[in-house]
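FIELD: query
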Amino acid sequence: MLRTTVFLVLYLTSVGLTAADYPDMVGVWRADLRTISSGAPEVATGGMVISEVKATVTVDHQDGEAFLGKVRLSSMGKNDPSVKMWGAIRSNGKEARFIGSDGTGGPIWFIDETSYEFCVTSLTDESVMMAYCGVFKKDTPQE
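FIELD: result
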């Protein structure tokens, strides 16, 4: 009996996370963000431009720790394509990293099943620097 118990404890501590242990990313996530950017040289005041935008992340697919989706910002035009997003969740199930097709990327910290905090930094080809952090909340189905 003792041998079985010791084996079971050692086995369970060495297994790591299963797919069920990763946060469920599939769905729609929303946030109100304040962004800071360097802006175009002739626009920036004090070296920065602060903007407020609404963001929507739609995660279409998840396979264990890997997920992919798209991002829309309220500052984007109707005909602007969504930013594609790829991400991977760390083995501890509490953090992730993501990258967007526009070159943005950063860390994600899971708060609970319906919210996560993240930060973004980017540098465009036009040498515009941008950074922001925020908390996304997952849309929950209405009963």
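FIELD: remark
The longest helix spans residues 2-14.
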